[in-house]
């Protein structure tokens, strides 16, 4: 399936529709293979001991899967998470941004399933693995008909 929202469109959508996360996440790649999203790690993402918190890693996975789905179906804001599972594999590197490499496994009319591997920038070993399912509202059919 073709990409209907590129990196620029996804980042503009996030900035416009989700101002509460502005400056925290950035989509860096969106193509037929999936997307890569970045968590711009700052003090607010750290837990005691200086490591990136689990909720921050989960948020990165959620944003990356959300953007992967939207990259294929367009700006359907009410697409929502219906199931999620995350495995924390190792401690993220201190002082490094995190990258989520996400791929869609299934994109149907009403559900999308994807996985995301999260890495500390510069590392080849993932720090977390996440699997998510999203519900796609009927509004998607309206957007698709307008293309």
UniProtKB/TrEMBL annotation:
Keywords: Hydrolase
InterPro entries: HotDog_dom_sf (IPR029069), PAAI_dom (IPR003736), Thioestr_dom (IPR006683)
Segments forming domain Thioesterase: 49-123
Annotated GO MF terms: acyl-CoA hydrolase activity
NCBIfam families: unchar_dom_1 (TIGR00369)
Record's protein name: PaaI family thioesterase
Lineage: Bacteria, Pseudomonadati, Pseudomonadota, Alphaproteobacteria, Rhodobacterales
């Amino acid at each position: 399936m073709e990409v209907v929202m590129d990196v620029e469109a996804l980042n503009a959508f996030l900035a416009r529709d989700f101002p509460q996360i502005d400056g925290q996440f950035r989509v860096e790649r969106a193509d037929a293979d999936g997307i890569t999203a970045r968590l711009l790690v700052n003090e607010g993402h750290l837990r005691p001991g200086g490591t990136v918190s689990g909720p921050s890693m989960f948020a990165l996975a959620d944003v990356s899967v959300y953007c992967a789905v939207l990259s294929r179906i367009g700006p359907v804001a009410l697409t929502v998470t219906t199931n999620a599972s995350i495995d924390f594999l190792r401690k993220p590197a201190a002082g490094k941004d995190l990258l989520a490499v996400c791929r869609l496994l299934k994109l149907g009319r009403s559900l999308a399933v994807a996985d995301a591997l999260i890495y500390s920038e510069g590392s080849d070993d993932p720090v977390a693995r996440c699997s998510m399912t999203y519900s796609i509202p009927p509004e998607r059919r309206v957007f698709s008909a307008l293309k």
